[in-house]
Amino acid sequence: MSIWQAVIEAFESLTANKLRSGLTILGIVIGVAAVIAMLAIGKGAQASITGEIQGIGTNLLFIFGGGSEEVRNPKPLTLGDAEAIADPFAAPSVEGVAPVLQGNAEVAYGGESVITSINGITPSYATVRNYQITEGEFISEEHMLGQAAVVLLGPDVAEELFGRKDGLVGETVRIEGQPFRVIGVMKEKGGSSFGSQDNLVFVPLTTAQTRLIRRSTRDRVDNILVQTVSAEAVPQAIEEVTQILRTRHLTEVGADDFTIFSQQDFIDVAASITNILTIFLGGIAAISLLVGGIGIMNIMLVSVIERTREIGLRKAIGARRMDIMIQFLTESSLLSLSGGVIGIGLGWGISAIVGQIAAANNANLNPVIGIDALLLATVFSTAVGLFFGLYPANRAANLEPVEALRYE
Amino acid sequence: MTDWVVDARNLTKVYTMGDVEVHALRGMSLQVSQGEVIAIMGPSGSGKSTLMNIIGCLDRPTDGEYYLEGESVAELTDDQLATIRNRKIGFVFQIYNLLPRATALANVELPLRYAGEKNRRQRAKEALEVVGLGNRLFHRPNELSGGEQQRVAIARALVNNPSIVLADEPTGNLDTKSGDEIMELLLRLNKEYDTTLIIVTHDPEIAEKTQRAVHIRDGRTNHSPS
Questions:
Q1: 3-class secondary-structure state, position B123
Q2: What's the gap in Å between the CA of B47 and the closest CA on chain A?
């Protein structure tokens, strides 16, 4: 009997019992829809995170204090470290250096107040991070030297405190109760997976050290941003910076008390997190496919019992074992395949809705349905039908014709 | 030996049900020649169903020899038996056993499909015309009368040009008139196509229409003139 004939026959037999077939494939529909939606959302999330990290700049290095736990007496990063890295002879691959001291504090104006991130920075921060201001001026060397009580507001903070984002230069806000003069407002950078880049304020590093963020060592900084001369110079710059810091911190070889991250490292970390997430969600989806497959097996067993006489008749007029096997396997895989196709549609719908919701909430998430996901879903759902159809089909094929014909 | 279409010798069949052994056939022999019409009669439990199952290659004897058209079939595998049933045997059952969702034509095509034959539609159509249902090709069983359904079953039995047609109480579910028509049809087909016809029946009237009646009692042949 030809496969095409078998498919038509299976189709007729399944449509003869529409409600039952529909309920049976529901498990597969949900499973496949889950797979498709999970993969799409996971991919979309990964793409947007990668995009955001790339938006930071391809030629940036982040240096954090702390590294190997084997270092007995770890030293924190200091302003001195930053100055040493900025030395063009010791580190020719480095273009700019921006040490940062970071803390959280309350910023208040009038009756409004907001807890936000206080960033003590140097003038080079503007070029290293490519920050721009919409009005006023950036933090200058004079502000640094004078430990001036001046502040640059992030757009979100400005909005919170003043209800507007312009005409704020010259206003005075209070940080930890101390008055700071507003010298400018930052341009919006948009949200990111690392929290808003707009909900922060900048003050001169020296001011932060003396007035806002107390650290055990006086010239300590929290991290140092390094801009390399080009994206290709990143490995070379890492090498140079490592050498400088090892010399200054007098650490043994192989046990650094600092950590250097390049943008690629962040992308890798983010990718491994989203991969774990995808595997986890995929596991849940696989379980629902499994449950769907058991549903199919169940209904196929019922169907075999119901059609015992028919199987007996088919055998009597010449159906071989394999013919009966194929008949029932075709039915079960057609069941799960149609479940898979409907599930693909549903999964596509779900990811579209998630995309819409994300867009409505200004989150940068575009679910991506890849060909690989479609293939995976189709192949998997058919395989589930085949696998779980095997036992019922085998049972049907092994029926004794005499017994089957006598079955009431 | 090759003269017989059916040559069964000393068949025994023992069913084991739990601890009890049931001897359905105890050394039964039966020879049927080409083109013959015979009736197998006997009370229920006599073993006539078992005999029919073995003749129809649906079951194997526990012991004894069975030659179908000179070929020994007692030792064949299930799939080999399926092929023999497909090529050499046509079944007509008491309750028709048609596929309920398939049209008359599709029902008759079924054996040809398992045989992998070409030209199925044409041959199935011809078979239905032979049994007088040329105008009912696309009706489903529930749209046909009992007599018509049995005609479809007969067309299905004949479509592969079998050596034997085995009819198990073919008129058992029909009223007298349709029953007579079915018997007439079977006998006419036997004459026209020289197909051997074996009818299992309770009904002495039907047995009278055959050339020979074989009476079975307690798993043995009980020859009597008819």
A1: helix
A2: 14
